[in-house]
Q: What sequence folds into this?
């Protein structure tokens, strides 16, 4: 792990990301997680329909499958469709008022839905405002599994998004459509690649 000096402080650097890499990393992410766009569309329909109970339970199931968390589905469903729908709606209300960590807490009220999967659900509900903080990001990039760790990672992804949008090295076709969740996806793929290589 490289050590750099910046503003008189030594920093351990666990990951670096060149703007020119982002497009390729996003293609790799879409290839590895092909249902991402479909789940984003499901979330938009769910929000527009005001979180019907059955559709809310189906949405949680699909997010768990997307994140390879099938083992959690039956225990989450034990909470009942009405509670699942209420949790999703409450989380969305918190996100809309920029209280993302509060949204995660509401989602974590469901059985077996920890921070990682709560962040996955939030990411699909609001891809412009939320990121996924899972074990790959925590262990390979170095964020803590807590609301504070999530807030720090979200803030860092938001700052990186701002920097990428102004970078001449980012593909022009990406500049306007890039979202905070896309930045997280690129970081995720880079972190996985760093360990694989």
A:
């Amino acid at each position: 792990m490289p050590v750099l000096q910046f503003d008189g402080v030594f920093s351990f650097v666990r990951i670096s990301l060149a703007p020119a890499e982002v497009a390729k990393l996003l293609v790799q992410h879409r290839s590895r997680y092909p249902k991402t766009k479909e789940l984003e569309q499901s979330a938009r329909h769910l929000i527009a329909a005001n979180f019907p109970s059955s559709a809310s339970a189906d949405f949680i199931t699909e997010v768990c499958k997307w994140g390879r968390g099938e083992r959690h589905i039956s225990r989450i469903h034990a909470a009942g469709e009405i509670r699942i729908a209420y949790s999703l709606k409450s989380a969305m209300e918190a996100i809309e008022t920029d209280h993302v960590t509060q949204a995660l807490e509401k989602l974590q009220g469901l059985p077996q839905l920890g921070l990682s999967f709560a962040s996955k659900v939030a990411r699909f509900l609001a891809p412009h405002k939320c990121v996924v903080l899972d074990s790959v990001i925590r262990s390979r990039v170095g964020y803590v599994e807590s609301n504070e760790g999530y807030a720090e990672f979200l803030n860092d992804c938001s700052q990186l998004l701002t920097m990428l949008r102004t970078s001449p090295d980012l593909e022009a076709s990406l500049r306007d459509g890039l979202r905070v969740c896309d930045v997280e996806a690129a970081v995720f793929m880079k972190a996985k690649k760093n360990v694989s290589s």
User: Anything to note?
Assistant: The longest strand covers residues 3-6. Residues 15-30+131-196 form one domain.
